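Cross-check.
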Amino acid sequence: MSAIIDIYSERKVQLINITSEIESLVKNSQIKNGTCIIYVPHTTAGVLINENADPSVASDIEKALKRIVPPISFEHIEGNSPAHFLSSLVGCSLSIPIINGSLQLGRWQGIFFSEFDGPRRRKVIVTMLSSSF
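Predicted model, tokenized:
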């Protein structure tokens, strides 16, 4: 089973919590055991797992990511080279186990779409694969 989640970012660099959308897709898939694959098909965005209990963690990550790219002279003429670099650093996919119908995230973990060239309309592709264990 696969689905697409539409994302609307509001800022240049923004972490958007998509945990509840992913959990809903897993629940509706009725897959008991398997894998949830989350993929971002954009070269200036990514996806990551981190704490979602305290919103200041996402804010702190945003601040750190904005500062991680030094002011160098990039050759890419679109002006969004830092976004390409950050996307490569964070990554564009995740694989999370599904056991007994539930996504196996840690107690404080959440899934965040990571925008690096916003504001933009984006998408996240979610595929759930069933296994026989």
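The longest helix spans residues 55-68. Helices lie at 19-29, 55-68, 81-90. Passed to J.P. for a second look.
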